[in-house]
Amino acid sequence: MFYIIIAKLKVGYMEMTYSDVIALPVKERGPLLKSLAESGDNDACLAYAKLIFADKYNGTPSAGQSKDEAKAEARSSAVTFLYDAALRGHLPSIILGQDAAFLGRQGAFNKVLCKVSFTKAIEFLDLWLAQEPEPDDRALALFRKGLCLKLMNAETPWAEVESLWEQSASLGGEHGIAASAQLGARHFDNGRYDEAIPWLETAKNSSMMAASLLMLIHKNHTKSEDDYKECSDICSVLCSTKPKPGQT
Fold first, then answer.
1. Which of 128, 167, 184, 224 could tie 200 with a disulfide, CB 3.0–4.6 Å?
2. Going residue by residue through the chain (248 aa), what tens digit of pLDDT does each one get?
3. How far, in Å, CA of 181 to CA of 211, rounded?
């Protein structure tokens, strides 16, 4: 009789819909969302990943599996499910997936809930760009893809990186400005000060890096005291302003 009850419970779980599972207490959702995600439910893929990233589910050990092994498998499957849904065109999974892969996810006491993977981030970003997102989102995707290519390669494909950042910069907004700052820094590092100036000018009022590099250019290259003082004043203002996460 006991085995019959267990069998019915398992069948019942498989018959539950996403709405049924989300209505349950959070602590009961993990294995049920996993089953739905494995069956191809996009909303379940997203909800399962959010559960993992919030450190609300640590996996359910199978026969012969330790708790640590189950935990590692659960955290790995979060990104896998997001990517599966992303391939099916599920935009919320694409957006969460690229952000998690690009920035990683940390839990309390330095627990790693999702490792940074620039390779996987690019896969998500390419899927996002293929959906022709709104300008601000497109600027972010282009900017991040450029950063990924810069950070993951021993020899940076600078032509591609600069092209991505130029496309991002042309869209304006917060992320386009960040791309302008990176382009300005790239030209500065290579001694192309005149080419750096217009990019840094675009970003100087919101980027400490841009303002400080521009200040150095006006001090040592253009010798413009007025421009140097303006940039110095901007740096003072930015020093007193708490930067946003990821701001340059």
1. 184
2. 334 333 333 444 457 999 999 999 999 999 999 999 999 999 999 999 999 999 999 999 988 899 999 999 999 999 999 999 999 999 999 999 999 999 999 999 999 999 999 999 999 999 999 999 999 999 999 999 999 999 998 899 999 999 999 999 999 999 999 999 999 999 999 999 999 999 999 999 999 999 999 999 999 999 999 999 999 999 999 998 766 655 55
3. 9
- Rounded distance between C-alpha atoms, residue 99 and residue 86, angstroms: 13
> For 114, phi and psi rounded to 5 degrees?
-155, 120
Is the four-CA dihedral 106, 67, 43, 37 of positive or negative sign? positive
Report yes or no: 114 and 75 within 8 Å, Cβ to Cβ.
Answer: yes
The model's pTM is 0.88
Q: State which amino acid sits at residue 246.
A: G
Which residue bears the tokens 């500065």?
A: 188
What phi, psi does 5 have (nearest 5°)?
-60, -45
